[in-house]
Structure formats: C-alpha cells, structure tokens
Design goal:
By secondary structure, the chain is an alpha/beta fold. It has one domain: 3-Layer(aba) Sandwich (Rossmann fold). The protein is built from eight helices and seven strands. The chain has a seven-stranded parallel beta sheet, sandwiched between helices. Helix 1 crosses helix 8. The protein is globular and about 50 Å long. The relative contact order is 0.15. The model has no long low-confidence stretch (mean pLDDT 96).
Length: 251
C-alpha cells in the first residue's frame, strides 16, 4: 500500500467551499479519504469534484467567526464516519487597511476566524485523537506572512504568525501521543483573498517579479502538500511550516 494512501481515513476540511480549502478536499478525496467539508456557503461544487473518487462526503454549514459550531461539527463528522483522522484548519478571512486605519472590529474578525477558532478546533480534534489512542494528523494553513510582515494586513499577519506558534506548541505537546501537527504556508495563490492584489497591476507585477516560478500559484498546488502531511509518509514530521510558494522565500 502506498505511504500516501488515505483510504479509510476521514478528513475534516474547513473553508472547503472554494479556493485552497476546496482543492485540499478534492486532493484528499483523490488519495482515498472521506471528506467532511465545512464552510459558510453551499458545498455542491466541492462535492461534485470529490464524487468521482468514490469516497464519503458530508457537507457541514458553519460560521467559524465563533467557536460555537465546533462541537456540532465534530459530532456530525463522528456520526457519519466514526472519527476525524485528519483536520485541515484552512478557514480564513483577510482585512486590508493601512495599520494607522485598521479598526478594532477588523482586527477581532480576523483573529477570531484565523487563530481562535483554528486553535479550538485543533483542541477538539486533538482531545479525541489522544483519548482513543489512534492519533491523527492536524494541518494548519498558515501563510508566507507567518514568516514575513506583509503590507496593509496587520491583523492577518498577526493571526498567521500566531498560527505558526500554535502549530509548534501543539507539536511539542502531542507528538509523543501520536498526533502530528504541521502547517502549510501558501505563497501567492489565486483565490478570493488575493483577488485585490491580482487586480492591481503594479502589486501583481511586483509579486510576480519576486516569484522564481514566474506565476501565481493555483489552489491545486496546495493539495499535494496537504496529502503528504496527512499521510503515513509524514509520520515523523512534527511542527513544520512547509512553504508552497513558487520559491518566494528562497529569493
């Protein structure tokens, strides 16, 4: 059996209705995993893309601006598939403003979704993975801004830097208990979050000028990294932030 085979495992993917989350869900289904797709809008397109791989699929509507839905999400996943073997913490939002103009509301909104809910969902999954002794894989979707400062995205940078720290501390606490906690740091990926940058000719040109690969990433570029970190091939990998950035950080 391939070390990358996820047959028989179940993966909960947040923000799975579009973009990177959708691409990760489809890649995990292709590798054999059942998918619990969580998001604020309809999952019809994600389900349609997963269906050819003949794995189980469950759509769960949830708004992760609060932690209230977490136990419900986990309960629905367990009722359908028995347990959550893989958690992909992908849901995220962004607010752009000069630092001198960023509002408290925009700060709180980003921190609540991108960091607070991600931590408490990892906590809920980790508790179960440790309690039943079967372990599991948790993959957080961080950012290049977990390494760098960025421009006009103070709350997003703070949240993604915090998520890098959460990834490391959970790895420290849970590695010996059979739970792998790692993160993917996507580069500039064509998505809803980067639409404003792609539409700005100067910013887009500046970004592409630094990417050795010479292109914007696509959501599917993140799928392989997610499969790898979710698979037995990554059993001895803990606390890593894996850039998938077309070489941006190497420049």
């Amino acid at each position: 059996m391939s070390r990358f085979d996820l047959s028989g495992r179940s993966a909960l993917v947040t923000g799975a209705n579009t973009g990177i989350g959708q691409a990760i869900a489809v890649a995990l289904a292709e590798a054999g995993a059942n998918i619990v797709a969580v998001g604020r809008s309809a999952m019809d397109d994600t389900e349609a893309q997963c269906r050819p791989h003949r794995t189980g699929f469950l759509a769960v509507a949830a708004d992760l601006s609060t932690i209230e839905p977490i136990e419900r999400m986990m309960g629905l996943a367990e009722a359908r598939f028995g347990r959550v073997d893989i958690l992909i913490n992908n849901a995220g939002i962004i607010r752009r403003a000069d630092a001198v103009d960023l509002t408290e509301a925009d700060w709180d909104a980003v921190m609540d979704v991108n960091l607070k809910s991600a931590f408490f969902l990892a906590q809920a999954a980790g508790r179960r993975m440790i309690a039943d002794g079967a372990g599991g894989k948790i993959v957080n979707v961080a950012s290049l801004l977990s390494f760098q400062g960025g421009i006009r995205v103070a709350s997003y940078t703070a949240a993604k830097s915090g998520l890098a720290g959460v990834t490391r501390i959970l790895a420290n606490e849970w590695a010996s208990k059979g739970v792998n906690v790692n993160a993917i740091a996507p580069g500039y990926i064509a998505s809803n979050n980067t639409a404003a940058l792609m539409a700005d000719p100067k910013r887009s040109a500046d970004i592409l000028g630094r990417v050795p690969a010479g292109r914007w990433g696509e959501p599917k570029d993140i799928g392989g990294a997610a499969v790898f970190l979710s698979s037995p091939a990554a059993d001895f990998i803990h606390g890593v932030l894996l850039p998938v950035d077309g070489g941006w950080l190497a420049r």
